[in-house]
Amino acid sequence: MKRCASTVAALLAFAMGALGQTLTKEQLARVDFEQHLRQRAPLNAMFRDESGAPVRLGAFFGQRPVLLALAYYECPNLCTLVLNGVLESTRNLRLDAGRDFEIVVVSIHPGDTPARATTKKQTYTTRYGRPGSAQGWHFLTGDAEPIRQVSEAVGFRSVYDPASKQYAHPSGVVVLTPDGVISRYFLGIEYPPKDLRLALVEASQHRIGSLADRLLLLCFHYDPMTGRYSLLITRVLQVAGSGTVLLLAALIMRLARSRESRLEPEGHPPGGGSPPLLLIATWSLLPERASDIARSVDAIFYALLVVCGLVTAGVGAAVLYFCVRYRAGSPAKRPAGDQTSVALEIVWTSATLLVFLGIFVWAAVVYFRMSRPPANASEIHVVARQWMWKAQHPNGRREINELHLLLNRPVKLLMTSQDVIHDFFVPAFRTKQDVLPSRYTVEWFTPTRPGKYHLFCAEYCGLDHSRMGGWIYVLEPADYARWLAEQQSGESMVAAGARLFQARGCSGCHAPNATVRAPLLNGIYKKPVALADGTVAIADDQYLHDSILLPMKQITAGYAPVMPTFQGQLGEEEVMELIAYLKALGDDGQGGAR
Amino acid sequence: MSLSAPPVAPPSTRAEPNYLDDHSIRSWLLTTDHKRIGLLYMVSITLFFLVGGAAATLMRIELLTPQGDLVTSATYNKLFTIHGVVMVWFFLIPSIPTVLGNFLLPLMIGARDVAFPRLNLASWYLFMAGGAFALWSIIAGGVDTGWTFYTPYSSTYANGHVIAMATGIFVAGFGSIATGLNFIVTIHTMRAPGFTWFRLPLFVWALYTTSLILVLATPVLAITLALVALERAVGVGIFNTAMGGDTLVFQHLFWFYSHPAVYIMILPGMGVTSELIACFARQRIFGYRFVAYASVAIAVLGFLVWGHHMFVSSQSIYAGMIFSLLSFLVSVPSAIKVFNWTATLYRGSIRFQTPLLYALGFLGLFTVGGLTGLFLAALAVDVHLTDTYFVIAHFHYIMVGGMVMAYLGGLHFWWPKISGKLYPEFLAKLSALFIFGGFNLTFFPQFLLGYLGMPRRYHAYAPEFQVLNVLSSAGASILAIGYILPFIYLLWSLRYGRTAGPNPWEATGLEWTTPSPPPKDNFTAMPVVTEEAYAYHSQEIAEPSRTDYAR
Amino acid sequence: MHAETSVAHQFNDAGQQRDAATLGMWVFLATEVLFFGGMFLGYTVYRLTYPGVFLAASNHTLVLVGAINTAVLLLSSFSMVLAVRAAEQRRTFSTAGLLTLTAALGAAFLVVKGFEYRHEIHEGVLPGAAFHLAGADPRLAQMFFYLYFLMTGVHALHVAIGVGLLGWFTLRALLTSDPGRLVTAIDLLGLYWHFVDLVWVFLFPLLYLAGRSL
């Protein structure tokens, strides 16, 4: 993101010069090209074509991928630069506008007329200079509403400056699939022809482009950070492997088919599995990345990959070279004498050590960050049991095998298990934490990308371990609000805890007017507690938990050890509610009632 | 090693008495001859390898489809437990030390036998008794705890024959301890005259360090498993947090053994590789002393890194940092070894015979396995990768790619010594290539699976993981062919193979100075050592016919 | 010094055989230390986690009986030292007598321990479903007695093996024609016996005395 942001900023500065700086900083800050990948363009928006005839945006879709540019036709500089960039790049393509793809320029200025559009079109089709290019370039004008729809859909945020009668706007073009789904962004004013070609081929769902392009695409991967296609070494491996897989898959399918056809004579579709070819299409070698920590973890991962790749390649190359050069009977010189070199040993030992220490420090720093939840993290309680995940939000809303989270809000999971050890693992967040019986463990993360992600149990827990999973939903604020509203959450955790405190008889002893002498619990959370054996404990979650289930473990000084254990009578979820109540209980004993 | 004693017998003397002469069953079951005990172990671990391999085969077939439709999850859980327990304790840990170690150690140091031959036989019986318990628990219905026996699952929640399985490992563990003790004493007290520590072949160094670990780590495993079994029987919660105990104590105790156990499984492989590379590059091992010290460093540091299995277990983050740092440190000596082996090839005169192919295969796979260990030692990265297929791939690269490659390489190298026969070279090379290719195809995809987030011990998995799993299963079928081939042609060679002669590879080392198969007391006269190990250089000069390379 | 026949075929001479046997015993004791170490570690962890429970529970052990047993074992170590010395001096009958005395003390230890166990099982502190101990959370107190029975039980097993070996060597000492053959073996048996004593010297304060300092 940084890189595109700086490009945009540079261009903005350029544009601002022309605008005479009449816009405020806040207004300019709104100007942005936000990437709405995989979202749909409003194909029903109505515009006017160069002749002034009404035309649906969707008319340009359906067959071919579309290169969409937003501009206005009297723009003094930036729009021209964008369009020139498109022209420059498309002129270098073997693909033809009009035959292989469409170029659609939508004016963001409601005041633009078809006449101006016609002028622009003539300029560019002439300079493009390929036969039939008139069918490939479209310059649309329209009213404010359809312009707003399109701009919003593609994330194009501009600001009108009434003083100079100009727009402050970002620069870039968008590639869409024939179905109108946004597939790629090119920000800035230069669009490398190679990248553009690959984007178009990809967006066309491989209906255009040469075989070589398609093969190339397997090895190149669009990086939204840079907006470029970059070579993926892992993808090269994937391609090499795919050949083998295809053969094997075909063989297995064939065998399975012939067996099934014998077993199930007719009409029965092969059970359950999707066809292998489809699987290959949806298969990626890079895990999704949806938390703030994921980027740091991946950075170390890739650094390690480079280091280890170099070492492996180095050793491999040396072995191969020596094997060939010093094969028995080869003419290579082999001077006699002891070869052992202490200097060399010291060099490679210390070099290895230094590199390793560097990686250690880097990974430890990130780990330290992973282990420290921020104070503002919202707390969700998770109880694991064979074989499900139960979560409870602070407002009392419960979920099973699902967890809905708000985008960009740090979340702290306070977890425990009802039976054996489990492990809360979200690959897309790159975090994992064992969940122990009768002990609280903490895991935290900040989801940074909306979507639906796997939740796995990663510590073997018995029979249905492999099915103990679910989904994490990361929602945009609006969706999150909708989800929250969907269900009337019952009583909050604090309220439930207050109810339990009465119902289970806790208040019988731990209340000011109680007959049995027991410690008062008002405001106890995080306070030091003097124990009978002379030590002092901090009344954190674990202390409160153990005091309820293992009361003999720590006995408060000055009180008789008479509290019965609630093991087997209270589930871990109920204990969590009680603790939530105790946490909320203020020094005056009133917090819980609020 | 040039020797002042005895001149090698000409290869034609076929009727010479050797250790295999007595054919009665009794003579085998009551033997105290280290060579015969080595062979007893060889047959036993081959059987266990077949059991573990069968479990692996079923698992790989099951994982062809994501739905888990070949076997039920209960069966699958038992399969991976059987695979883990049998392969770790009944194949990998005994493999090189008890088979090649038992056979070769006295031969290599110029002794007539190990220090305590009867204890040696007893250790085999302990091993077999343990194996019998393990097999009984498998036949009686199996165990589904995984080879790690994590509590409170194993102590409270698991069904199945946990106690029998734990007893099996407990008993076999004492077999390991006996072997380790025997080796340590043998190496200390029974070396031939002139055999100083720094003249020892590196395989002996490797066996020595391995034995130290066996002796010091195995009792901790024994008591830990005993505690689990008792806890299960009595219902005490010493490892059960819900009953006031602490499951992390179990994990600490378990990994205090099981991490060093990894080095039990790899150090002997490193030793074998050193022998093979020196012999077929016709060179003294580059940086001999550093390689020897590296073994010791690995053995010592290996005891201090167990906590790296517990980075996400809720142990203190500061403990995590210390264990991570030490884990990086322990990988340095391994790296040193790799560099030294590579450098040994430099200016060598390399002969591409089967054992060298295995050694080079070891070098490649161990490098990958070792380097991927860095990913797991790096704290933040381990959090993502631990308990996924990345870990599976990593330790299979070390244990199967490393140890099994080395075991097979060593078996091919010393087979002429063990049996007196040569195996068909072409088939042997072919199987080495099959194993190398099949292995990579099987386990490389698992690195990718792990990074994508597929957890281990999953009977059913998300459909997007299928392609890589199919690839892995396909590789496993190639690997299986690679393993079956040697089994066939080595047996074939016993009857039809060409006579090997005492030293078919023109190798240095005392074991090659005695006839093949060796006589019952190993040497006809006491050998005396006057030179360092791997004196290939002086050997070449002594044989003018082999100096054509020096032009 | 030693008869040629006493050297096993794999050794070159008696000196090598003695070195091997001695080193072997030390290595064996090293594994034993690690074996007990696991249990001591468990004891340490839970004693630190539940100091009150452990100290209170240790007050339920029979300290006097434990003290007597400690004295018995220490005495047996002394007689073992004398036996080793007698063997070195080739005094066959003193050797056999002292070995018998040591074995008898070891057996006495086991008998006393047996009565102690009987008493404790009668009290109901044997871990299991029937476990009960007044005024304590049974789950936690049980852990102390679990470790108590385990550690003393494994120790008693070692004593029993030692008694058996002592008996066997008494016979050998009496029957052999060459007392010199047994010197090393008796010396090593002494090592083993002292190790077993040493373990008890650690067990006694941890299990019996811990709570009585309060």
Describe what you observe in this structure:
- The complex is a heterotrimer of chains A (594), B (551) and C (214).
- Chain A is of the alpha+beta class and 594 residues long.
- Chain A has 16 helices and 25 strands.
- Helix content of chain A is 39%, strand content 19%.
- In chain A, the strands form eight sheets. Chain A has a five-stranded mixed β-sheet with strand order 6-5-4-10-11, with helices on both faces. In chain A, strands 16-15-14-18-21 form a five-stranded mixed β-sheet, covered by helices on one side. A five-stranded mixed β-sheet of chain A has the order 17-23-22-19-20.
- Residues 1-21, 223-227, 230-237 and 255-282 of chain A have low confidence and may be disordered.
- In chain B, helix 2 runs parallel beside helix 4 (117-139), helix 8 packs across helix 13 and helix 13 (389-419) runs antiparallel to helix 14 (425-452).
- Chain B contains 16 helices and no strands.
- By secondary structure, chain C is mostly helical.
- In chain C, 42% of the residues are buried.
- The chains are: A alpha+beta (594), B mainly alpha (551), C mainly alpha (214).
- Chain B binds chain C through residues 106, 111-117, 177, 180-182, 184-186, 188-190, 215-220, 222-224, 227, 230, 234-238, 243-246, 249, 253, 521, 526, and chain C through 8-12, 16, 19-20, 23-24, 27-28, 30-32, 34-39, 41-42, 45-46, 49-50, 127-129, 137, 139-140, 142-143, 146-147, 150.
Topology, element by element:
The complex is a heterotrimer of chains A (594), B (551) and C (214).
Chain A: H1 2-19, H2 25-30, E1 32-33, E2 46-48, E3 54-56, E4 66-71, H3 78-91, E5 102-107, H4 114-128, E6 137-140, H5 144-154, E7 156-157, E8 159-161, E9 166-168, E10 172-176, E11 182-187, H6 193-203, H7 211-219, E12 220-223, E13 228-231, H8 233-263, H9 276-281, H10 292-325, H11 342-371, E14 378-385, E15 388-392, E16 398-400, E17 402-406, E18 411-417, E19 422-426, E20 431-435, E21 441-445, E22 451-457, E23 470-475, H12 477-486, H13 493-503, H14 506-509, E24 528-530, E25 536-538, H15 541-549, H16 572-584
Parallel strand pairs in A: 4-5, 5-6, 14-18, 17-23
Antiparallel strand pairs in A: 1-7, 2-3, 4-10, 8-9, 10-11, 12-13, 14-15, 15-16, 18-21, 19-20, 19-22, 22-23, 24-25
Helix pairs in contact in A: 6-7, 10-11, 13-16
Chain B: H1 25-29, H2 34-62, H3 73-109, H4 117-139, H5 153-157, H6 162-189, H7 202-234, H8 247-281, H9 288-301, H10 317-345, H11 354-377, H12 379-385, H13 389-419, H14 425-452, H15 466-496, H16 536-542
Helix pairs in contact in B: 2-3, 2-4, 3-4, 3-6, 3-7, 3-8, 3-13, 4-6, 6-7, 7-8, 7-9, 8-10, 8-11, 8-13, 9-10, 10-11, 11-13, 11-14, 13-14, 14-15
Chain C: H1 14-49, H2 51-58, H3 63-88, H4 92-123, H5 138-175, H6 183-209
Helix pairs in contact in C: 1-2, 1-5, 1-6, 2-5, 3-4, 3-6, 4-5, 5-6
